[in-house]
Amino acid sequence: MRGLFISVEGGDGSGKTTQLKNIKNYLDEKGIKNIFTREPGGTEISEKIRGIILDPENAEMADITEALLFAASRAQHVAEKIRPALENGITVLCDRFVDSSIAYQGYGRGLGEVVKEINSPAVNGCMPDVTIFLDITPEDAMARIAERGHDRLEREALELHKRIYEGYRKIIESDKMNRIVSVDASKSPEGVWEEIKGILDEWLERKQKAEYPKE
Questions:
Q1: What's the pLDDT tens digit per position in 104-153?
Q2: What's residue 142's pLDDT?
Q3: Mean pLDDT across the chain, nearest whole number?
Q4: Which pLDDT value is given to residue 214?
Q5: 164 or 209: which carries more pLDDT confidence?
Q6: How does 14-43 read in b/e, with b if 16+ C-beta sit within 10 Å?
Q7: What single DSSP character describes residue 167?
Q8: Distance between CA atoms of 34 and 111, rounded to whole angstroms?
Q9: Rounded to 5 degrees, what are φ and ψ at 28?
Q10: What is the sign, positive or negative, of the torsion defined by CA atoms of 184, 189, 191, 193?
Q11: What pLDDT, on the 0 to 100 scale, is given for residue 13?
Q12: Which residues fall within 8 angstroms of residue 26, CB to CB, at 6 or more apart?
């Protein structure tokens, strides 16, 4: 059976790092064979592209260049790591996936539908089974990260992050497959985790029923 593909999305400061660790530990505790990966990155080639994207010295990067680099990184990531793992029955936990490009470059940068078009061959039909969106307003999120160092993307103006947030909301509204589950990330980390754990249990149960259907 194909492995379960889980992605976690959310703006900077949404608490993704903490919850990704919780999810990884939970899968390990349940004895579910899994790998954790991230975007941009995940493979040697993709990590090199990540370095270019996030380098604060690349402030002059054109918006379309950024979008194409994300898609290139994702294409390698899917081909080399994500798809092979899923085909071998391994659960994949991914920090961001294509939804982030649509939100950041499509809505945030105003590139629109071209982002979906360039990512279609990169994803090549390999989409998450469930995406957990950590929902927190840009104002609250930016307050959380005010004291830490920022990479190139985190230094962007608040107005951009507002457009990105609205982009995520529109992606969720158009999600006809009910793939994306929104979680209130303004709650305590413990409260957020309890909600995520319930989502995971539901999807793991679905997968088990698919593997061992009643006769």
A1: 999 999 999 999 999 999 999 999 999 999 999 998 888 877 655 555 55
A2: 83
A3: 93
A4: 65
A5: 164
A6: bbbeebbebbeebbeeeebebbbbbbbbbb
A7: H
A8: 34
A9: -65, -45
A10: positive
A11: 86
A12: 197, 200
